[in-house]
Structure formats: structure tokens, C-alpha cells
Design goal:
The chain is built from 9 helices and no strands. By secondary structure, the chain is mostly helical. The protein has one domain: Glycerol uptake facilitator protein. The chain is globular.
């Protein structure tokens, strides 16, 4: 595998690791602070942690790999015809590897008394939220994220604002969907903490939902929103 292939994969793995170390770490921090008798920062802190770090990483790594850091983003870009199949598969493998390393790193940083309640920040369904509803919520939230990706990073007409809009989309999605599904929008965001903690309840919600939303967004972009010269 040559350098032109390896460098983007390394960027995806490292970027995903950093994204989840901060993002999932902010969830574990709530349990850590609560266990110490303090007042947990709550949903706004978690949303800001995910959104800000993603905005930074997407801006920093966009020129190297596209800054996907999310199998759903890679899948949506593939549906839109903007990435080759082999490259997309390698991106997903790199993202999942970075996610698992992040989950294991958080196990090292925090004692089990801190990461146990949230399963190292593994997304879960809220009270009275069925798996079917969870899939729907994740799909819609992922559509918001993917449209931000297409509209500000993929499209040649995109405004030059780096990853700001993408980070804001994640922040807004977590503010709405966090209590319902964890607001993952990202199969790797579920996979890494789940593997590290051994918690796999309703696992398919965070695979089917984000991929379905990404597929719809990718199809909309490819068939409706793209420039004529970009369509097949």
C-alpha cells in the first residue's frame, strides 16, 4: 500500500480516535463528576464537546482525507458517487479501528465506576423509545449531518467555512436526539465504546439508522441537488 493510500487512512483513524476520545469522554465525564459528588455538566456540554472537536478535526483533516470520521459519511459520499468503493471500505475500517482505540483509551483514563454507568459513552435508547423509533431518529439526524457535509465540504459551490457547519450540525443533533438515542449519527461512535465496554444492547439502531439517513442524503444530493456536470 503506497503513501497516497496510507496517509488518508491514517488521518481517518487518528481523527476518529481524537473525535471519540473527546466526544465519548465528555459523556463519561458526566458519570465521573457525579460519582465524585459534583453536579454533572449535562447535555449541553456533551453537544458542545462533540460539535467543537469535530469542527476542528474536519477542518484540520479535510485536505488530507476529506475528514469523514464516520462510516455513515463515507457511505453517503459513496452513494453520491464521490468516493471509490475500495477506498470507502478502507476508510470505514480505519474509522472503526480509531473508534475502538478511543474506547479502550477511555477505559484506561477513567475507573470503571466512572465509565460503567454510560458504558464508556455508548449510545443507548431513552425511556419509552423503541428500536424502530430510535432508527428513525438516527436516520433523520444523520440526514442533517450529511447535508451539512455535502453543502459545505463536498459540493464545489460550498462556502469556505471549514468544518464549522458540520460541527454545528452535530451539536444541534445531539441537543435534540441525545436524550432519545444518544444522537450518534455515526456507527463508529457506537462501535468503539460498545466494543470497549462489552455493551451491545439494540446494536442495530446505530448501524441501520445512520446508514439509512446517509443513503437518503446521498441519493438526494446525487439526483437532485448536485450540479448537472456532477451527475452520472
Amino acid at each position: 500500500m503506497d503513501r497516497r493510500t496510507m496517509v488518508p487512512l491514517a488521518a481517518e483513524a487518528v481523527g476518529t480516535f481524537l473525535f471519540f476520545f473527546v466526544g465519548a469522554g465528555s459523556v463519561v465525564l458526566n458519570d465521573y463528576v457525579t460519582a465524585g459528588g459534583g453536579q454533572a455538566p449535562g447535555l449541553i456540554q456533551v453537544a458542545l464537546a462533540h460539535g467543537i472537536v469535530l469542527a476542528v478535526l474536519a477542518s484540520s483533516l479535510g485536505a488530507v482525507s476529506g475528514g469523514h470520521l464516520n462510516p455513515a459519511v463515507t457511505f453517503g459520499v459513496w452513494v453520491a458517487g464521490k468516493i471509490e468503493t475500495t477506498k470507502a471500505v478502507l476508510y470505514v475500517v480505519a474509522q472503526l479501528a480509531g473508534a475502538v482505540v478511543a474506547g479502550l483509551a477511555l477505559r484506561v483514563v477513567f475507573a470503571e465506576s466512572a465509565w460503567g454507568p454510560s458504558h464508556i459513552g455508548t449510545p443507548g435508547l431513552g425511556a419509552a423509545i423503541s428500536p424502530a423509533v430510535g432508527i428513525l431518529v438516527e436516520a433523520v439526524l444523520t440526514m442533517v449531518l450529511l447535508l451539512a457535509v455535502f453543502g459545505t465540504a463536498v459540493d464545489r459551490r460550498a462556502p469556505q467555512i471549514g468544518g464549522l457547519a458540520i460541527g454545528l450540525a452535530v451539536c444541534a443533533d445531539i441537543l435534540m436526539g441525545g436524550p432519545l438515542t444518544g444522537g450518534a449519527m455515526n456507527p463508529a461512535r457506537w462501535f468503539g465504546p460498545a466494543v470497549a465496554s462489552g455493551f451491545f444492547d439494540n446494536w442495530y439502531v446505530w448501524i441501520v439508522g445512520p446508514l439509512a439517513g446517509a443513503a437518503v442524503a446521498g441519493a438526494l444530493y446525487r439526483g437532485l441537488f448536485a450540479l448537472d456536470v456532477d451527475r452520472d
